[in-house]
Design brief:
There is one protein chain. This protein has 286 residues and is mostly helical. Helix content is 68%, strand content 8%. The strands form two sheets. It has a three-stranded parallel sheet, sandwiched between helices. A two-stranded antiparallel sheet has the order 4-5. Helix 2 links the parallel strand 1 and strand 2. It is rod-shaped, with a radius of gyration of 52 Å.
Length: 286
Protein backbone atom coordinates (compact mmCIF):
# COMPACT_ATOMS: atom_id res chain seq x y z
CA UNK A 1 0.00 0.00 0.00
CA UNK A 2 2.98 2.33 0.34
CA UNK A 3 5.87 3.60 -1.80
CA UNK A 4 9.29 3.37 -0.21
CA UNK A 5 11.88 5.99 -1.09
CA UNK A 6 15.55 5.33 -0.29
CA UNK A 7 18.17 7.98 0.43
CA UNK A 8 21.88 7.35 1.07
CA UNK A 9 22.48 10.76 2.65
CA UNK A 10 20.71 13.46 4.59
CA UNK A 11 20.92 15.81 1.62
CA UNK A 12 19.22 13.27 -0.65
CA UNK A 13 16.55 12.62 1.99
CA UNK A 14 15.73 16.34 2.21
CA UNK A 15 15.47 16.54 -1.57
CA UNK A 16 13.09 13.57 -1.65
CA UNK A 17 10.95 15.15 1.05
CA UNK A 18 10.83 18.44 -0.80
CA UNK A 19 9.85 16.73 -4.05
CA UNK A 20 7.09 14.70 -2.39
CA UNK A 21 5.78 17.79 -0.70
CA UNK A 22 5.58 19.64 -4.03
CA UNK A 23 3.57 16.74 -5.42
CA UNK A 24 1.36 16.88 -2.30
CA UNK A 25 2.21 13.31 -1.42
CA UNK A 26 1.69 12.35 2.21
CA UNK A 27 4.75 11.13 4.15
CA UNK A 28 3.57 9.15 7.16
CA UNK A 29 6.91 7.63 8.30
CA UNK A 30 10.68 8.03 7.97
CA UNK A 31 13.22 5.45 9.16
CA UNK A 32 16.67 6.91 9.65
CA UNK A 33 20.04 5.33 10.49
CA UNK A 34 22.17 7.21 12.95
CA UNK A 35 25.32 6.72 10.85
CA UNK A 36 25.07 8.77 7.64
CA UNK A 37 27.52 10.91 5.65
CA UNK A 38 27.91 14.59 6.62
CA UNK A 39 24.90 14.62 9.01
CA UNK A 40 23.99 12.30 11.82
CA UNK A 41 20.61 10.60 11.92
CA UNK A 42 19.34 12.49 14.96
CA UNK A 43 20.29 15.81 13.33
CA UNK A 44 18.47 14.87 10.13
CA UNK A 45 15.34 13.89 12.09
CA UNK A 46 15.38 17.22 13.93
CA UNK A 47 15.64 19.01 10.57
CA UNK A 48 12.80 16.95 9.11
CA UNK A 49 10.62 17.54 12.18
CA UNK A 50 11.00 21.29 11.78
CA UNK A 51 9.63 21.02 8.23
CA UNK A 52 7.31 18.04 8.52
CA UNK A 53 6.12 17.78 12.15
CA UNK A 54 3.35 15.26 11.45
CA UNK A 55 5.69 12.63 9.93
CA UNK A 56 6.59 9.89 12.43
CA UNK A 57 10.30 9.15 12.97
CA UNK A 58 12.13 5.92 13.81
CA UNK A 59 15.85 6.04 14.58
CA UNK A 60 18.01 2.97 13.95
CA UNK A 61 20.89 3.21 16.40
CA UNK A 62 24.22 1.45 16.03
CA UNK A 63 27.05 3.31 17.62
CA UNK A 64 24.83 6.22 18.64
CA UNK A 65 25.27 7.44 22.17
CA UNK A 66 22.46 8.08 24.59
CA UNK A 67 22.83 11.82 24.03
CA UNK A 68 21.91 11.39 20.34
CA UNK A 69 18.82 9.39 21.24
CA UNK A 70 17.76 11.95 23.86
CA UNK A 71 18.40 14.71 21.36
CA UNK A 72 16.13 13.01 18.80
CA UNK A 73 13.46 12.31 21.39
CA UNK A 74 13.42 15.87 22.68
CA UNK A 75 13.71 17.82 19.42
CA UNK A 76 12.44 15.46 16.72
CA UNK A 77 9.47 13.97 18.58
CA UNK A 78 10.96 10.51 18.02
CA UNK A 79 8.38 7.75 17.76
CA UNK A 80 10.84 4.96 18.61
CA UNK A 81 14.49 4.01 18.39
CA UNK A 82 15.69 0.48 17.62
CA UNK A 83 19.17 -0.65 18.58
CA UNK A 84 21.34 -2.80 16.34
CA UNK A 85 21.32 -5.59 15.44
CA UNK A 86 17.86 -5.01 14.05
CA UNK A 87 15.26 -7.77 14.19
CA UNK A 88 13.27 -8.00 10.95
CA UNK A 89 10.01 -9.03 12.66
CA UNK A 90 10.35 -6.36 15.33
CA UNK A 91 11.10 -3.70 12.73
CA UNK A 92 8.13 -4.79 10.60
CA UNK A 93 5.74 -4.70 13.55
CA UNK A 94 7.08 -1.30 14.58
CA UNK A 95 6.50 0.07 11.08
CA UNK A 96 2.92 -1.30 10.98
CA UNK A 97 2.22 0.09 14.42
CA UNK A 98 3.64 3.48 13.45
CA UNK A 99 1.53 3.64 10.29
CA UNK A 100 -1.62 2.74 12.22
CA UNK A 101 -0.75 5.38 14.79
CA UNK A 102 -0.19 7.99 12.07
CA UNK A 103 -3.56 7.47 10.41
CA UNK A 104 -5.35 7.21 13.74
CA UNK A 105 -3.87 10.58 14.69
CA UNK A 106 -4.85 11.93 11.28
CA UNK A 107 -8.41 10.68 11.68
CA UNK A 108 -8.58 12.10 15.18
CA UNK A 109 -7.29 15.45 13.91
CA UNK A 110 -9.91 15.49 11.17
CA UNK A 111 -12.62 14.62 13.69
CA UNK A 112 -11.41 17.35 16.01
CA UNK A 113 -11.43 19.80 13.12
CA UNK A 114 -14.96 18.71 12.26
CA UNK A 115 -16.01 19.11 15.87
CA UNK A 116 -14.40 22.53 15.99
CA UNK A 117 -16.30 23.54 12.85
CA UNK A 118 -19.52 22.13 14.30
CA UNK A 119 -18.91 23.99 17.56
CA UNK A 120 -18.39 27.22 15.66
CA UNK A 121 -21.60 26.64 13.73
CA UNK A 122 -23.42 25.83 16.97
CA UNK A 123 -22.09 29.00 18.57
CA UNK A 124 -23.24 31.01 15.58
CA UNK A 125 -26.61 29.23 15.64
CA UNK A 126 -26.91 29.82 19.37
CA UNK A 127 -26.16 33.50 18.90
CA UNK A 128 -28.68 33.69 16.09
CA UNK A 129 -31.21 31.75 18.16
CA UNK A 130 -30.75 34.06 21.14
CA UNK A 131 -31.27 37.02 18.86
CA UNK A 132 -34.39 35.45 17.35
CA UNK A 133 -35.71 34.59 20.83
CA UNK A 134 -35.15 38.18 21.92
CA UNK A 135 -36.92 39.46 18.81
CA UNK A 136 -39.75 36.95 19.25
CA UNK A 137 -40.09 37.87 22.92
CA UNK A 138 -40.36 41.53 21.99
CA UNK A 139 -42.98 40.66 19.35
CA UNK A 140 -44.96 38.58 21.86
CA UNK A 141 -44.84 41.36 24.43
CA UNK A 142 -46.12 43.80 21.81
CA UNK A 143 -48.78 41.30 20.71
CA UNK A 144 -49.85 40.78 24.33
CA UNK A 145 -50.16 44.52 24.75
CA UNK A 146 -52.33 44.71 21.63
CA UNK A 147 -54.39 41.75 22.88
CA UNK A 148 -54.91 43.44 26.22
CA UNK A 149 -56.07 46.58 24.47
CA UNK A 150 -58.36 44.51 22.23
CA UNK A 151 -59.72 42.67 25.27
CA UNK A 152 -60.52 45.93 27.03
CA UNK A 153 -62.18 47.25 23.87
CA UNK A 154 -64.18 44.02 23.49
CA UNK A 155 -65.33 44.15 27.10
CA UNK A 156 -66.43 47.76 26.64
CA UNK A 157 -68.28 46.79 23.44
CA UNK A 158 -69.89 43.84 25.22
CA UNK A 159 -71.16 46.08 28.01
CA UNK A 160 -72.52 48.55 25.46
CA UNK A 161 -74.17 45.69 23.54
CA UNK A 162 -75.79 44.31 26.70
CA UNK A 163 -77.17 47.74 27.54
CA UNK A 164 -78.44 48.13 23.95
CA UNK A 165 -80.13 44.71 23.99
CA UNK A 166 -81.79 45.42 27.30
CA UNK A 167 -83.19 48.73 26.03
CA UNK A 168 -84.27 47.29 22.66
CA UNK A 169 -85.94 44.31 24.31
CA UNK A 170 -87.99 46.67 26.43
CA UNK A 171 -88.96 48.77 23.40
CA UNK A 172 -90.00 45.68 21.42
CA UNK A 173 -91.92 44.06 24.24
CA UNK A 174 -94.22 47.06 24.73
CA UNK A 175 -95.87 47.05 21.23
CA UNK A 176 -95.82 43.24 21.11
CA UNK A 177 -97.83 43.02 24.32
CA UNK A 178 -100.38 45.36 22.71
CA UNK A 179 -100.61 43.09 19.65
CA UNK A 180 -101.09 40.01 21.84
CA UNK A 181 -103.73 41.80 23.86
CA UNK A 182 -105.74 42.70 20.76
CA UNK A 183 -105.52 39.11 19.41
CA UNK A 184 -107.00 37.86 22.68
CA UNK A 185 -109.83 40.38 22.42
CA UNK A 186 -110.48 39.47 18.75
CA UNK A 187 -110.44 35.72 19.51
CA UNK A 188 -113.32 36.25 21.97
CA UNK A 189 -115.37 38.08 19.31
CA UNK A 190 -118.02 35.59 18.14
CA UNK A 191 -118.57 37.56 14.90
CA UNK A 192 -115.14 36.61 13.60
CA UNK A 193 -115.28 33.76 11.11
CA UNK A 194 -113.59 30.39 11.61
CA UNK A 195 -110.88 31.03 8.99
CA UNK A 196 -109.96 34.40 10.47
CA UNK A 197 -110.06 32.94 13.95
CA UNK A 198 -107.38 30.46 12.84
CA UNK A 199 -105.30 33.38 11.54
CA UNK A 200 -105.73 35.18 14.87
CA UNK A 201 -104.57 32.04 16.68
CA UNK A 202 -101.49 31.87 14.44
CA UNK A 203 -100.77 35.55 15.14
CA UNK A 204 -101.14 34.90 18.85
CA UNK A 205 -98.86 31.83 18.81
CA UNK A 206 -96.28 33.65 16.71
CA UNK A 207 -96.45 36.67 19.01
CA UNK A 208 -96.02 34.46 22.05
CA UNK A 209 -92.98 32.84 20.41
CA UNK A 210 -91.58 36.25 19.48
CA UNK A 211 -92.03 37.37 23.08
CA UNK A 212 -90.06 34.36 24.24
CA UNK A 213 -87.34 35.16 21.72
CA UNK A 214 -87.15 38.70 23.04
CA UNK A 215 -86.77 37.32 26.53
CA UNK A 216 -84.04 35.03 25.23
CA UNK A 217 -82.22 38.05 23.86
CA UNK A 218 -81.87 39.28 27.41
CA UNK A 219 -80.13 36.04 28.26
CA UNK A 220 -77.35 36.74 25.74
CA UNK A 221 -75.56 38.80 28.35
CA UNK A 222 -75.96 35.90 30.75
CA UNK A 223 -74.50 33.52 28.16
CA UNK A 224 -71.49 35.79 27.67
CA UNK A 225 -71.02 35.98 31.41
CA UNK A 226 -71.29 32.19 31.72
CA UNK A 227 -74.45 32.37 33.81
CA UNK A 228 -76.93 30.76 31.43
CA UNK A 229 -79.16 28.16 33.08
CA UNK A 230 -81.19 25.22 31.83
CA UNK A 231 -84.77 25.92 32.81
CA UNK A 232 -86.24 22.42 32.87
CA UNK A 233 -89.96 21.81 33.14
CA UNK A 234 -92.52 19.20 32.12
CA UNK A 235 -94.56 20.21 29.07
CA UNK A 236 -96.64 18.87 26.17
CA UNK A 237 -94.31 18.18 23.25
CA UNK A 238 -97.24 17.58 20.87
CA UNK A 239 -98.58 21.06 21.58
CA UNK A 240 -95.14 22.56 20.98
CA UNK A 241 -94.88 20.79 17.61
CA UNK A 242 -98.42 21.85 16.65
CA UNK A 243 -97.57 25.47 17.45
CA UNK A 244 -94.51 25.29 15.21
CA UNK A 245 -96.57 23.76 12.42
CA UNK A 246 -99.17 26.52 12.59
CA UNK A 247 -96.49 29.18 12.75
CA UNK A 248 -94.71 27.90 9.63
CA UNK A 249 -97.75 26.89 7.54
CA UNK A 250 -98.35 30.37 6.15
CA UNK A 251 -94.68 30.85 5.27
CA UNK A 252 -94.68 27.51 3.44
CA UNK A 253 -97.89 28.41 1.63
CA UNK A 254 -96.39 31.69 0.42
CA UNK A 255 -93.57 29.68 -1.19
CA UNK A 256 -95.97 27.11 -2.67
CA UNK A 257 -94.57 24.40 -0.41
CA UNK A 258 -96.45 21.60 1.26
CA UNK A 259 -95.58 21.54 4.97
CA UNK A 260 -96.16 18.04 6.37
CA UNK A 261 -95.56 17.16 10.05
CA UNK A 262 -95.31 13.37 10.40
CA UNK A 263 -94.93 12.53 14.08
CA UNK A 264 -93.67 9.03 14.82
CA UNK A 265 -95.64 6.96 17.31
CA UNK A 266 -92.65 6.47 19.61
CA UNK A 267 -92.32 10.22 20.21
CA UNK A 268 -93.49 10.84 23.81
CA UNK A 269 -96.19 13.46 24.37
CA UNK A 270 -94.86 14.78 27.66
CA UNK A 271 -91.16 15.38 28.24
CA UNK A 272 -88.98 17.27 30.67
CA UNK A 273 -86.63 19.83 29.09
CA UNK A 274 -86.10 23.57 28.57
CA UNK A 275 -89.19 24.33 26.49
CA UNK A 276 -88.02 27.76 25.30
CA UNK A 277 -84.62 26.56 24.11
CA UNK A 278 -86.07 23.44 22.48
CA UNK A 279 -88.64 25.60 20.65
CA UNK A 280 -85.90 27.92 19.40
CA UNK A 281 -83.69 25.03 18.24
CA UNK A 282 -86.50 23.29 16.37
CA UNK A 283 -87.62 26.54 14.76
CA UNK A 284 -84.07 27.29 13.59
CA UNK A 285 -83.73 23.81 12.12
CA UNK A 286 -87.06 23.99 10.34
Amino acid sequence: QYDIQLAESAEEALEIFAELQRDQIEIPLVICDQNMPKMRGDELLIELHARYPKTLKILLTGQAGMDAVVNAVNYANLYRYIAKPWDEIDLGLTVKEALCRYFQDKQLTEQNETLRTVNQELEQLNTSLEQRVAERTAELMEANEHLQQAKEAAEAASRAKSAFLANMSHELRTPLNAILGFTQIMSRDRSVGLEYREYIDIINHSGQHLLKLINDVLEISKIEAGRIKLNESSFDLYRLLDDLEEMLRLKAKEKNLALIFDRATQVPQYIRADEGKLRQVLLNLL
